[in-house]
Design brief:
4 copies of one chain form a homotetramer.
Chain A (H helix, E strand, L loop, with lengths): L2 E6 L5 H15 L3 E6 L13 E7 L7 H9 L11 E8 L6 H14 L3 E3 L10 E3 L4 H22 L3
Parallel strand pairs in A: 1-2, 1-3, 3-4, 4-5, 4-6
Helix pairs in contact in A: 1-4
Chain lengths: 160, 160, 160, 160
């Protein structure tokens, strides 16, 4: 069974809620998922999973400092995350507010770690975006994303 | 055998040369490679390969209009490239000249197509960058990139 | 009087409509505005204005090839656009669809030309985004953007 | 006299050194400059200057978490930085290592604050990049950048 860590930072609770929605859809795809608050994690934790998905509110066009901190610290294991599948999601106050650059700030960091990243052609392209509290739209985004992420993960890990 | 299309646009010949170096390293990894000038291609061509790598000179922080044109036209097949492995390379006049944003302009377009993208932890992270004409540094970048791309492609396509 | 060129590429007509809304608000701010279809322009045209705003549909996370073509050709005048004020707008099929990276593909090209760029703290941050056909939301975005652009332009050109 | 804050985060000392080189060139252009370690600053400090330049090492394609933290906290003053001139610089371990995306992570945050940003046509386009310890190349980048930043600042503030 392929495994995935969903790491989130959440102040209002919106991003945590998206994390949980995503987790439930990934579990339906038979992925072993652990959801963790980034404040309760250390970089060595990143080593234990086949996939890593990071979620952050949109803060000035990038991930929250709290999420960036664990990425900066993960330099200790540079090279050891290579080949893992990465993903990102964000919650944002409104449209045009920096959500895409926030997702890409996470995905680019993952590419630098040598990770693999996957896009979505028929939903939010760089990863699920929740405008304010998660709603039906968010749920649909997470469902489509979870399916694509799980399918890609299984291929990379040669499991079914 | 997994297959890959290397599509390039080249005015000075530098980008074409990188395309050929990359092709030779991919062939050593037992990937079936075709190298094509973007001016001699149509979007339907993109459908025929497991992997697609696009190379462009760094023009104002993005890929050349000639390369963007085929991406824009590929909307005709939106969804059909989903799951293919994508990659990018660029040749640039100098450091700090927009080469990273050029690579990301290609990789982001691929994510929007639902493609899979892979980064490199121990070489140019977003894809090979050649500063001026290809040299030993470029050769090394291509070698590392080709190995990682080929390994990821084989996993995605379940071939050895 | 400070002058500005609004250059657009439009297939459906949506982007052209945003160009015209933006033009009318800039004129209310006493800016001399010319609106042009990019297909009817050549790069030497860019030299004649204090400000340049470019608008493109969101195509695979970047500006349309037709807009990129004129940017690529403007290399002929590299350095001569330095210090001009630049801006961007886009029309997009939906949220999370690459509109931010499209705006940034234009703004980054302008920075490479040595141009000045301005953001918006209380509306679409990187420039106006129209989701589908322009509506009230688009109109409001253009109004706020035009005011900020005009104010900045007048300072840079030392006119009132 | 126009004023500028140079804020840096530095672990090895390289980024601090670039901060000081940049400060000395800005002072030659008759700008009142203060250089501060981000660890000794609070967001209210950002209010006191006409220009703000932020420098960070290149950490996984973005600014250091320590720099992002002050940006996140500056939300308290959202809107009050509007119209100030912003700039960025970075020090990076090597070419192709995420330095451009690091600079843009800072510049994009500044645009979201409604700040004004300026590019360079004849040097590192998005801001000075130092590869490893500052050398002659870095010095030249800082000199060109300081001149352009100072000239733009004086226009925006209507001082000479």
């Amino acid at each position: 069974m392929a495994s995935t860590l969903i790491l989130y930072y959440s102040k209002s609770g919106n991003t945590r809620e998206v994390a949980n929605i995503l987790a439930s859809y990934l579990r339906k795809e038979k992925v072993d998922v652990e959801v963790r608050d980034v404040l309760d994690t250390s970089p060595d934790f990143l080593l234990n999973y086949d996939g890593i998905i990071m979620g952050s509110p949109t803060y000035y066009g990038g991930m929250a400092a709290e999420m960036k901190e664990i990425i900066d610290k993960s330099v200790k294991y540079h090279g050891e995350l290579s080949g893992k599948l990465g993903g990102a999601f964000t919650s944002s106050a409104y449209i045009g507010g920096g959500n895409e650059t926030t997702l890409l700030s996470i995905l680019n960091a993952m590419l630098i770690h040598g990770m693999v990243v996957v896009g979505i052609h028929n939903a939010d392209h760089y990863g699920p975006v929740s405008i304010e509290a998660p709603d039906n739209r968010t749920d649909k985004q997470c469902k489509i994303y979870a399916k694509k992420f799980a399918d890609t993960l299984k291929l990379l890990k040669s499991v079914e």
